[in-house]
Amino acid sequence: MRFTVLFLLVFSLFSCGDKDQKPTDQLQNGTWKAAMKDGNPSSNPTGSSSVVYYAWDLCQQDDIYTFKNGKRYIDKGVVSCGIAEQASEVNYQYNPQNQKLVIGETSFDVAELNENRLKYYVKTPGPGGSSFLIFIFEKK
Fold this sequence. Notes:
This protein is of the alpha+beta class. The chain has helices at about 1-15, 25-30; strands spanning about 30-35, 50-55, 65-70, 70-75, 90-95, 100-105, 105-115, 115-125, 130-140. It has two helices and nine strands.
């Protein structure tokens, strides 16, 4: 009987795994790549503004993004954009309480952050009204 209870206790500890990860850990554990498809459009911002997905250039699609120790790093992939590319290291701050992600000097709202997906957006003005520009990443 003791063996059964001990086995169940140990099994339950290991089965919880990443489900109890803090949002900051989910952001920092692993690497991210640009996603071309929104696997969860229900997490998009709502309201009268339109939703626009960031159009990743082919040369950005193989870049790897890492968030560690207050820095966002970009490991440029094999495909080059052939122009002056953005800095590969920039400061970031993430506040999970209000779901704000500040990268460099730009503030984003986080729509989704879990073990597989990171989605953030910024509201942008336009001639026909404002829109939400959405950036989507998947865990590599």
